[in-house]
Amino acid sequence: MHLxxxxxxxxxxxxxxxxxxxxxxxxxxDAVGKLLNDWYQAGTAAGLTAITYENxxxxxxxxxxxxxxxxxxxxxxxxxxxxxxPAVALRTSPTVGNCSMSAPADKGGSLPRMYQIDPQGxxxxxxxxxxxxxxxxxxxxxxxxxxxxxxxxxxxxxxxNACTLISQGSSGSDQPFLNSVLTTIxxxxxxxxxxxxxxxxxxPTVQAIFRQSNKRVQKEEDxxxxxxxxxxxxxxxxxEEKMMRMAHDMRPPQIPPLPQIEVIEETEMQNGRDxxxxxxxxxxxxxxxxxxxxxxxxxNTSEHVMxxxxxxxxxxxxRPVQLRWQLLQGDPRLIRLENSAQGxxxxxHVRWQPPIKTLKGLRSHRVDIGxxxxxxxxxSAPAILSFYxxxxxxxxxxxxxxxxxxxxxxxxxxxxxxxxxxxLRWLKAMxxxxxxxxGLRSRLMEKLLTEPERQSLQKIxxxxxxxxxxxQKLESDETRKDSAPILKNSLQDDLAKxxxxxxxxxxxxxxxxxxxxxxxxxxxxxxxxxxxxxxxxPLAAQSPKTSATxxxxxxxxxxxxxxxxxxxxxxxxxxxxxxxxxxxxxxYYISGLNLTVxxxxxxxxxxxxxxxxxxxxxxxTTPKPWRDIRRYDEAGKLxxxxxxxxGRTTWFNPEGQLLPEGPDHPxxxxxxxxxxxxxxxxxWLPQ
Length: 687
What we know:
Radius of gyration: 30 Å
Shape: globular
Number of helices: 16
Number of strands: 27
Distance between the termini: 107 Å
């Protein structure tokens, strides 16, 4: 009897251990892991037995082995396609994967950008999205402050969509997102997870939860802004437990609807008339899928008009769907929406826009518009329309809203200040902005900062600089240099805090904004080089940047070629247009010269920037070393354009044909072809 009871208790214990083993979704011992396992044991969470994990970087950034025991591990075979690199084949089972691989930004860039520039790649992303496949990739160098590779390149993504997750950073930055997605999927109630998989709505629903749970989304309206839908996500904004709880609370009736968009009519463009590229130009229609539409705004028309249908948007339970259009990134003054009487058709008017600063402070050239669907209970992830302005172009408009001028090879617009608030160059910037004297930069700063502001800046700079001088002495002392790194780190922390301190004076400027605004004002001073040429020439010759004189002369020559500047016989530089006829475009071109003058001669120890023209992905366009000034009659009808290039002036009619004898002989025309040169620039040849 006692022996029977012993074996009965032993079998019971074994059964209990077996249940405990199969009931473990994760081996994580944190609060998220405990909560998830408790839910699973209670039968309220589905777990991960239906989910597959795929690593595509050769275990460079793998999921920790054994962390999720229920998870199926994808095993490549001869039919599954390449095992490494970007995914190229759909997985039939629900799959979450990652790939921490990338090329340098100017050599191809991140894997998401590779998909985004290719219409077929965009279509594949959509197919993954609607087939329960989600891949997570790092941005590496495609989403970092700076310009032309100094610091970074800014936002290089031409489109935005919810079909992937892109992590801020490089290898390993995908891991927090990978874990959060897996625990969210595991937390769905069994019936909900099963229905999401059957109806192929798993990843759209995960994306909706992920974005609504972002720590920056503080109130309901924040979800309908760019706060929740950047192209790249920072792990610091993840709230994994909130994601998991939202998933766990979701019953089948709460599954969000799916917004679907379709272009039914839009402005069409013709190469050689509306834009200029070599014969086999990259498609300007980057995406046409039910969940993402993307266009390159390379046309010279005043606006791009698009009619979009949302009639295929649907709710799983068959309930009426309400749609909300929302600008996520861009200037609202340059975008107009018109809803049709039918309700399911929206007419969208988008005008070319100059670059904007993202919420993270990056320069971006993209407009994003989100289309959200709600069934009255829950809100979807957005379908996204993106319009990409080529970074090497700048468009100008007249007072009637007509496209008046386009420059096709603009300067690098980056000012050159440090991106990192801990960068000790900020000390030099403080000194340059506050130091009184007879020198040119002191005289300029006196006009831009008030005396209380400059004195306040000096007071802040002095103790910080004294600490830095002491640290430098320690670094050069072999017996005491080991203590320098800790002191330097402390100084850099204090420097970062100091940049946000307010200066004395009525304007309430912080240290950082005072410096930035002053330098931006100098860059916008049209007469900077023209007025102070005699002082700037020797400053360039004495600059610690040995290329300073040549850099400035190259920029002057470039603006000469574009008929913006002219050099008189005595060497004095002046504008080609009379002072009272200098256009907004002229001022923009001259600001590029000013930026080069400032970084190379006026503030060489403060500003670090590339003096090359603005970088653009060569897969998307070929830079063109000219400017086109468009001509209209009194009724606003386009008459053609004047092209300035290499010191030459040529005339074209509205169809893009050359007028070899000018506008007085419009009947005499020549067809023009465009081709790429060995130097990577576009040239045109009359036929």
